[in-house]
Amino acid sequence: MSSLNDAKRRAAYKAVDENITSESKIIGIGSGSTVVYVIERILQRGNLVNKECIFVPTSFQSRLLIIEGGLNLGDIDQYSKIDVTIDGADEVDENLNAIKGGGACHLREKVVAEAAKKFVIVADYSKKSSTLGEKWKQGVPIEVIPFAYMLVIPSLKRLGCENPVLRMAKSKAGPVISDNGNLIIDAYFGLIKKPKELLEKIKLLTGVVEVGLFVNMTKMAYFGNEDGSVDIKKI
């Protein structure tokens, strides 16, 4: 039986091999545990290939991975048109809509994903579901400005979330602070059968910066399985 990490690695390797080609010069790098294996595979291609590429991070984590790997670091300000972005996800439904933001990076992840000609998700088998909310019970991550979080919480309740939770840090006193200096609210809405509709409603709330629902964005998803295989789904 394959471990989750083995499944993540196989999905990441296959996604890199099939989507970062000789024509891919500007590459978006997502965040999270699976992206470690994306960088690992990119580094295995060798400096001769990688020296021609620019890598745009979505978080402090992926920025460090790029720098520590000796890759060419770029910024979305410099490279607003990206050839391909590869990122992980917390849950992916049968239409390749995704919940992202478990690492509180979804604002920058969405910017870099939308800037790409192709957005590819890599994940292990535990992240695949038929409907969002089926497996990811922590809720939809919502980035809000600190000044407004107490206003946003009752608004989320009116939209159908029974218990919106301000995400608290585990190694510091107080809340999680995003790379953008904002707070994160996790809001579980049960099964999300209309993710686009929910996304639009939350985005209209005053104080909301971004929502961890990635709807109609993903072109391909790679899922590493327990048996060592990798499932590929395309839209």
From TrEMBL:
Keywords: Isomerase. The lineage of its organism: Eukaryota, Fungi, Fungi incertae sedis, Mucoromycota, Glomeromycotina. GO terms for molecular function: ribose-5-phosphate isomerase activity. InterPro entries: NagB/RpiA_transferase-like, Ribose5P_isomerase_typA_subgr, Ribose5P_isomerase_type_A. GO terms for cellular component: cytoplasm. Pathway: Carbohydrate degradation; pentose phosphate pathway; D-ribose 5-phosphate from D-ribulose 5-phosphate (non-oxidative stage): step 1/1. It comes from the Eukaryota. SUPFAM superfamilies: D-ribose-5-phosphate isomerase (RpiA), lid domain, NagB/RpiA/CoA transferase-like. It is an enzyme of class 5 (isomerase). This is Ribose-5-phosphate isomerase. One of its GO terms (biological process) is D-ribose metabolic process. PANTHER family: RIBOSE-5-PHOSPHATE ISOMERASE. It catalyses: aldehydo-D-ribose 5-phosphate = D-ribulose 5-phosphate. Belongs to the ribose 5-phosphate isomerase family. HAMAP family: Rib_5P_isom_A.
